[in-house]
């Protein structure tokens, strides 16, 4: 029988990657498949810290920082590699999930700041980290990193610590508002204002982040850290997959099952399912997806190289979709 590698991302705001992987695993095993290899993944967005901490081991720390709208929040970071490397998640300090539903809209999209992310980066540096990985997805912000840069500068810098930004999108700095701000509550007029502000931020930075691939991640935070502190920008999906030993685990499987909250036009633009499907295709392995919502058409699914897509919005439904998948693969 087919040996499955199960590598889902989180269903943002609903289920963690580990919860989704476990549900898929239960469904596959209940259908008689061999115990699958559960490999929760992330793309640099929400859940990256948990995935890397589980894969690499380490300890956790935290700090009280400014949330996206200025309210104090307690945000965590992880220390791995004997404390020499820290992982900071933007979603935990400046995330859209920290904005109350009642406040999501153009004003919040304009006001949201990455200052708390900067404060969390400083806390990680003061904990002794020499390299700080910044998982950049899931932000409420489009401030070009201005808040984070100001917070780091106000703290006197990072004491020589190096920054690596794990980007969940390939979007350049100047496109951040147009592409992502509507998801954060911005209307058309607000998007125009945010785009103009990004240009103003770029003009004040030590070097211009406009035109730089990946720099638009987290509403331009990636570009701001690149310009102000020489941060290295890296695709989050590829980084995480390498960290969890995905390619080696793929070689031991016969089929891959992936998942995320929504499959859409951005999936192939740095998102984890696009990266997973590409690696499966290169290995000549079928890739099946279980997602919360499928916003693609047949052409889009074909372009991603997916053998099939199932929708499921609860853990029970995810488990049932895995049962159906195992039966379909067995009968093929």
UniProtKB/TrEMBL annotation:
GO aspect biological process, one term: organic acid phosphorylation
GO MF term set: glycerate 2-kinase activity; glycerate kinase activity
Keyword list, A-Z: Kinase, Transferase
Pfam families in the record: Gly_kinase
UniProt cross-references to InterPro entries, sorted A to Z: Glyc_kinase_flavodox-like_fold (IPR018193), Glycerate_kinase (IPR004381), Glycerate_kinase_sf (IPR036129)
SUPFAM superfamilies in alphabetical order: Glycerate kinase I (SSF110738)
Keyword Kinase (UniProt): yes
E.C. designation(s): 2.7.1.165
Family assignment from sequence similarity: Belongs to the glycerate kinase type-1 family.
Protein name listed in UniProt: Glycerate 2-kinase
Organism in which the protein naturally occurs: Paraconexibacter sp. AEG42_29
Lineage summary: Bacteria, Bacillati, Actinomycetota, Thermoleophilia, Solirubrobacterales
């Amino acid at each position: 029988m087919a040996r499955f590698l199960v590598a889902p991302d989180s269903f943002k705001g609903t289920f963690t990657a580990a919860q989704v992987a476990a549900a898929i695993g239960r469904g596959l095993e209940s259908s008689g498949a061999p115990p699958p290899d559960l490999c929760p993944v992330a793309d640099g967005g929400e859940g990256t810290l948990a995935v890397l901490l589980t894969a690499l081991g380490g300890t956790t720390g935290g700090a009280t920082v400014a949330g996206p709208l200025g309210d104090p929040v307690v945000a965590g970071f992880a220390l791995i590699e004997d404390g020499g490397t820290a992982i900071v998640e933007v979603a935990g300090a400046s995330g859209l999930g920290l904005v109350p539903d009642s406040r999501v809209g153009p004003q919040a999209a304009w006001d949201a700041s990455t200052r708390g992310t900067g404060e969390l980066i400083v806390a990680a540096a003061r904990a002794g980290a020499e390299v700080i990985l910044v998982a950049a997805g899931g932000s409420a912000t489009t401030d070009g990193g201005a808040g984070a840069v100001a917070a780091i500068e106000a703290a006197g810098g990072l004491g020589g610590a190096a920054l690596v930004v794990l980007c969940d999108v390939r979007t350049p700095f100047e496109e951040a508002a147009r592409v992502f701000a509507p998801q954060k509550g911005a209307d058309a007029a607000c998007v125009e204002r945010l785009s103009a502000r990004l240009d103003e931020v770029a003009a004040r930075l030590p070097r211009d982040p406009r035109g730089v691939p990946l720099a638009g991640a987290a509403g331009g935070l990636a570009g701001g850290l690149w310009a102000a502190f020489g941060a290295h920008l890296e695709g989050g999906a590829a980084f995480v997959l390498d960290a969890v030993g995905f390619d080696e685990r793929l070689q031991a499987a016969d089929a891959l099952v992936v998942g995320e909250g929504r499959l859409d036009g951005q999936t192939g633009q740095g998102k984890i399912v696009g990266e997973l499907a590409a690696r499966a295709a290169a290995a000549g392995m079928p890739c099946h997806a279980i997602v919360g919502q499928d916003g693609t058409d047949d052409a889009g699914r074909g372009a991603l190289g997916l053998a099939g897509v199932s929708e499921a919005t609860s853990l029970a439904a995810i488990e049932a979709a895995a049962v159906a998948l195992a039966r379909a693969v067995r009968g093929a």
